[in-house]
Design brief:
It is built from two helices and no strands. It is mostly helical. Helix 1 packs antiparallel against helix 2. It is elongated, with a radius of gyration of 17 Å.
């Protein structure tokens, strides 16, 4: 199945996805700041937040690679 999107269209869409992931990452980072600010640390909660960050960072890296392949 061929796509009729231009490179500009694709780059714009990738940019939107990256921005969405950036919002998710930043939100989790804020959650980590809050969790670490507590005097009684919830180590399981902190570990869970860190575990949720890893796949988002992997997705962002993959999108950046795709973005780079379209701008070469």
């Amino acid at each position: 199945m061929a796509t009729t999107l231009t490179n500009e269209d694709k780059l714009s869409l990738i940019g939107q996805h990256i921005k969405s992931i950036d919002f998710q990452i930043y939100s989790l980072e804020l959650d980590l700041i809050e969790a670490n600010a507590l005097t009684q640390k919830d180590t399981e909660g902190i570990a869970s937040l860190n575990a949720r960050l890893e796949p988002l960072q992997a997705k962002r890296t993959a999108l950046i690679a795709e973005q780079d392949s379209l701008t070469e």
